[in-house]
Write a structure and sequence with these properties.
TIM Barrel; 10 helices; 244 residues; 47% helix; two-stranded antiparallel sheet
């Protein structure tokens, strides 16, 4: 705590309209799903995440959220992301895919296949919001992620709540027994940070350390067109997978 170092940055998906007003990410993905464009939006968001990470010249790992229900063709997604990473001079080990919306993962075998595919290629895997429900503990056992993030509801005020302290203590022990590193997210005070350090969390994340910051660099019209062109085959890949 006296001399913290940065282990990773998390890439957050944000869209702004012509008036520079934020479009809620949930609304954007919901609209994409209704329009059968969830796969395309998810892939584009991940490609842009690694691109901006490279542009910002950050010396750490980057955590990129992905919704398991958006992955129709893991091989195609992996080739696209791996190609972008290679072009930017990054390594797969620099990238950790963070699974969100796990309650919507109806096909567990499909999800396991995706994660196995990514791991064999050198990427890391993280599981979000452990502790938000019993399903999270089941997923920890089934998916065996490299990292888990403890739900911020358990983190908030933990230094004043012995029940939360006891729950988090055991969650950290369970993760450690399974050789999974723990990230405590949503830390907003020094007291919370000190408590999580005492309990043995491997990494700490939250507004106490830094708030999300918009990267100001803009892509050119040519780069935007290249990104658009790169996503054109996605619908064909999706249709081919549905027919197989």
């Amino acid at each position: 705590m006296a001399d913290p170092s940065i282990f990773a940055h998390e890439s957050l998906f944000r869209i702004f309209d012509a008036n520079e007003s934020l479009i809620p990410p949930g609304f954007a993905f919901s609209l994409a799903e209704q329009s059968n464009l969830l796969f395309a939006l998810d892939l584009t968001a991940r490609r842009l995440a690694v691109e901006y990470f490279s542009r910002a010249k950050l010396k750490s790992k980057v955590f990129i959220n992905f919704n398991p229900s958006s992955i129709y063709d893991p091989a195609y997604c992996l080739r696209a992301i791996a190609s972008a990473i290679s072009e930017l001079g990054l390594k797969p080990a620099d990238v950790v895919f963070e699974i969100v919306e796990t309650h919507r993962a109806n096909d567990m075998n499909h999800l396991k296949g995706i994660l196995s595919f990514y791991r064999r290629s050198g990427f890391g895997v993280a599981l979000d919001d452990i502790g938000s429900g019993w399903s999270g503990l089941n997923l920890l056992e089934q998916l065996r992620p490299d990292y888990v993030k403890i739900d911020m509801e358990l983190i908030s005020g933990i230094n004043e709540n012995p029940y939360k302290e006891n729950i988090v203590k055991h969650l950290i022990q369970i993760a450690r027994n399974n050789r999974t590193e723990v990230i405590a997210e949503g830390i907003e005070t020094q007291a919370e940070a000190e408590m999580l350090t005492e309990l043995g969390a491997d990494y700490l994340q939250g507004y106490y350390f830094a708030k999300p910051k918009r990267y100001s660099d803009r892509i050119s019209a040519e780069e935007r067109e290249a990104i658009y062109q790169s996503t054109r085959p996605i619908e064909e890949a999706k249709k081919a997978h549905q027919l197989s």
